[in-house]
Design a protein that fits this description.
globular; 1 helix; four-stranded parallel beta sheet
């Protein structure tokens, strides 16, 4: 089970890299240049269960035109991951 920050409970995420996908954050890494981790756990939004993204966390800026809900953002980011990792061969 994961807590609000995706931290592992019972070592379920051991070895995974947590990626915080945020909207409109100019300090976050931009999607076109982002290198996806092999074992990534993706979190969408700017805060989680009332908590801010942990300081120093790997942050990915999700590109938006108008309003984009979390499930649409997930589709964009995970499609980008699939293409960059050779999933369309």
């Amino acid at each position: 089970m994961l807590n609000a920050f995706g931290a592992e409970r019972g070592n379920q995420c051991e070895g995974s890299t947590h990626v915080w996908c945020v909207f409109g954050d100019p300090d976050a890494e931009q999607l076109p240049a982002f290198e996806h981790p092999v074992q990534g756990v993706y979190h969408f939004g700017s805060d989680y269960d009332g908590h801010e993204v942990p300081p120093g966390a790997l942050r990915l800026c999700v590109p938006t035109i108008g309003e984009l809900c979390a499930d649409q953002a997930a589709a964009v980011v995970l499609y980008d991951r699939m293409v960059k990792m050779g999933g369309l061969d």
